[in-house]
Design brief:
- There is one protein chain.
- The chain has helices spanning 8-26, 65-74, 89-104, 135-149, 161-184; strands at residues 34-37, 42-46, 59-60, 77-78, 113-118, 121-122, 132-133, 153-156.
- It is α/β, with parallel strands linked by helices.
- The chain folds into 2 domains: 1-56, no CATH class; 57-184, Alpha-Beta Barrel (TIM Barrel).
- The strands form 3 sheets. The protein has a 4-stranded parallel beta sheet, covered by helices on one side. Strands 1-2 form a two-stranded antiparallel sheet. It has a two-stranded parallel ribbon with strand order 6-7.
- The N and C termini lie far apart (51 Å).
Length: 185
């Protein structure tokens, strides 16, 4: 995209600074000019604003410890893609790293929204595969991810109109109902 090449470690540091830049610009109620003297981004008296019309969260899709710690320190949410995780256990492991970093930064880990990009196939022979099979099976599996791993939002990674309709009309309402019933117990 025309930016300079950074090592993976430098990219994490640059993202850390970029979050400060974004939050500083959005802080339009602060009348002091924005000053950031970072390694990658320098603002020497930048004008703040305009403020967003509504709160906009900064959510990061990340998998490695340094990025997970950055989420815990500064981000509003974690948005990994299930297919990129080594296992479902990686959700628990990632949550633990995020929560620890949040505590160290004086943040409440519950303020960090947990989301998950998901994909799969409806109607196929489920076998042992996650998110393969009828909508009721999807709902049960997503409910488990919500209750056991703290996932608040599921985003279907699909361009297929039929899959989107099944997910929105059958799976999502069933997950909401199952989660509500379990939490009511």
């Amino acid at each position: 995209m025309g930016g300079r090449r950074l090592s993976p470690g430098q990219a994490v540091d640059a993202l850390d600074e970029a979050i400060d830049v974004i939050r500083g610009v959005w802080d339009a109620g602060n009348r002091e000019p924005l000053r950031i003297d970072g390694t990658y981004y320098q603002l020497h008296g930048a004008k703040r604003g305009p403020a967003p019309a509504h709160p906009i969260g900064i959510r990061l899709g990340a998998y490695k410890p340094r990025m997970l710690r950055l989420i815990g320190r500064k981000a509003d949410g974690w948005l990994p893609t299930l297919a990129y995780l080594d296992s479902v256990q990686a959700l628990a492991d990632g949550n633990a790293v995020i929560d620890e970093a949040a505590h160290e930064a004086g943040r409440d880990p519950r303020a960090i929204r947990r989301q998950l990009n998901v994909g799969g196939r409806f109607g196929a022979d489920p076998g042992d595969q996650l998110l393969t099979g009828p909508p009721v099976r999807w709902a049960e599996q997503l409910t488990t991810l919500a209750l056991e791993y703290g996932v608040a939002d599921f985003i279907l990674a699909s361009d297929d109109p039929q899959a989107i309709a099944v997910f929105g009309e059958q799976v999502a309402p069933a997950v909401r109902e199952l989660v509500a019933a379990e939490r009511a117990r």
